[in-house]
Amino acid sequence: MKGQGIILKFELIGKSTECRARRGVLETLHGVIQTPVFMPVGTLGTVKALSVEDIKTCGAQIILGNTYHLYLRPGCEVIDLFGGLHRFMNWDRPILTDSGGFQFFSLAQLTKTTEEGVSFQSHIDGSRHMFTPEMAVTVQESLDSDILMCLDECLAYPSTFEAAEKSLALTTRWAARCRTEWLEKTGCKNALFGIVQGGMYKELRTRSAEELGTLDFPGYAIGGLSVGEPKDLMYDLADHTLPYLPADKPRYIMGVGTPEDLVELTAMGADMFDCVMPSRNARNGKLFTTFGDINIANACHRTDTRPLDETCTCETCRNYSRAYLRHLYKASELLAYRLNTIHNIHYYCTLMETMRKAIEEDRFETFRREFYDKRQGETEP
Questions:
Q1: Catalytic status, residue 98
Q2: Distance (Å, rounded) from C-alpha 92 to C-alpha 38?
Q3: Minimal CA–CA distance to 109: which of 99, 119, 100?
Q4: Is the model more confident about 131 or about 1?
C-alpha cells in the first residue's frame, strides 16, 4: 500500500575540512539513505542481470527507475495493480525516478518540444504520446517513487548560448508547474527535485540554480552534464554550480560516471549519483577494481587463478577466478553478465561507503591520494 504523510528529510552529519565533501542522511518513506550515495540504474524496474536480492547484497541503498520507459512498458495500469513500483519489482528500499527528460533528449528524432510539454512517438510501437510537466509528476506518483524529478529539457553538446538560455527558461517554467502539481496532488509523501540546466555556460548555470532555489524544492539535481563535453569542462561546471545549490538540501549529479568522477564530484560537495556504467560495462566485460580496470576478455586472464580483486568481498570475487569469468564471457554464458554486474555494482557501493567513512574521519584527501595511487595499478585496454 502506498504510504502517506512523509516528506524527504536531509541532515548533514559531517563535512571535510579539506574540501567540500559532505556526509549526510536522507530519510524517505521506504528507508534511510546514507550519503554520498551511488544509485544503480534499474531503467525498466530491474538492474540488468540482477535480482533485487543481488542488488541488496551488493550494498545498494536506493535504485533508479525511468518514468518514460515504465510508462510505455508495462504501463501505469499494470504497476497500479501492485500499488507502485516497489511491490511490482519486490524492492522495499527507496526508488528515484527520472522524469524522462534525458530520454526525450536521446530520442530527439521522435519528439517535439513545446511550451506545453513533449510530444513523442513510442520507440516500441510508434504510438503517439504527450508528456507535460504535470503528466511527469502524475506518472511518477503512480510509480510511488520516493524521489521524483521535474520534467526538464536536456541540450546536446555543443549548444549556443541563446539555445541554452531559452532551454533554461523553459526548464524553470516546467519546474514551477511540476511543483504546483506535486503540492496539490501527491500529499508530499515523496520528494520532488528540481533540475539545474544551462548548457555549458556558467552564467546560465548560476541563473538556473538561483531561480530553482526560489521554488524551495526538497532537493536539487544538476542535469545536462556528461552529454559529450570534455571531462575537464564537466568538472569545471559542476564545481561552479554546486555551491549555488542550497546547502541544507541533497545535491544530485545526474548520469555520472566513472569511479574517478564519483571521487572528484564528492570532493566538490555532491551527495547523489547514478550511472549505467557499472552494469553496462559489466555486460561488455569491463570490470572495475581497486587497482584499475580489467577487460576480462583479454588473453592474459585465460589461466589466471586469482579473483578479480583480492580486496573485494563480493560474491564474484569470493567464489570465482578470472580464468572462469573469462571463460563464461568468451562463451557468452548468461552467468557472465550476472557475476560481472554483481562485482561492478558492489565495487561502486563499496567505494561510496569508503568515502563516507573518510569524510566522517576527516581524512578525505588522504583517501583520495590512496585511491589514485592504487587505481594506477592494473588498467587494461
A1: yes
A2: 17
A3: 119
A4: 131
> What 3-state DSSP class applies to 173?
helix
In the chain, the domains with their CATH numbers are 38-275 (3.20.20.105), 283-375 (no CATH)
CA distance 144 to 129: 21
Q: Mind giving me the DSSP string for 308-373?
A: S-TT--SHHHHH--HHHHHHHHHTT-HHHHHHHHHHHHHHHHHHHHHHHHHHHTT-HHHHHHHHHH
- Strand extents, DSSP E, the chain: 9-15, 22-28, 31-35, 37-40, 63-66, 95-98, 111-113, 118-121, 128-131, 147-149, 191-196, 219-222, 251-253, 272-275, 286-289, 292-295
Q: What region, left, alpha or beta, does residue 351 occupy, with left being phi > 0 and alpha being psi -120 to 50 degrees?
A: alpha
Residue of 54, 152, 261, 274 marked active site: 274
Query: Could you give the CA distance from residue 358 to residue 354 in angstroms, rounded to a whole number?
Result: 6
- What are the CA-CA distances from residue 220 to residues 180, 223, 240, 335 (Å)? 16, 10, 15, 38
Which of 98, 146, 152, 309 is catalytic? The answer is 98
Categorize the per-residue pLDDT at 381 as very low, low, confident or very high, splitting at 50, 70 and 90.
low
**Cβ atoms of residues 351 and 38 within 8 Å:** yes
For residue 277, pLDDT over 70 is answered with yes
